[in-house]
Amino acid sequence: MQTASTNICERLCNKSIHEISLLLNIPQSTVSGIVTQWKQLGATATQPRSGRPRKMTERGQHMLKHTVHRRRQLSA
């Protein structure tokens, strides 16, 4: 009995990155990145990172900088 992943692998293993990209309708850079990650790590799951995650989003940081800059101009 074959699993879905085995069946997909059999269809995609011998194809080029370009062919896989066209078949799955995703960018070649994405396919290339996944293949590279698989060859290096043996998995495609996100690896744990060091350090504490940020609480503030990029947009929040931008808004905070903008507010501080605007208040500096008003106080000068």
Automatic annotation (TrEMBL):
Taxonomy, superkingdom: Eukaryota
InterPro entries: Homeodomain-like_sf, WH-like_DNA-bd_sf
Name of this chain's protein: Uncharacterized protein
Species annotation: Staurois parvus
Taxonomic classification: Eukaryota, Metazoa, Chordata, Craniata, Vertebrata
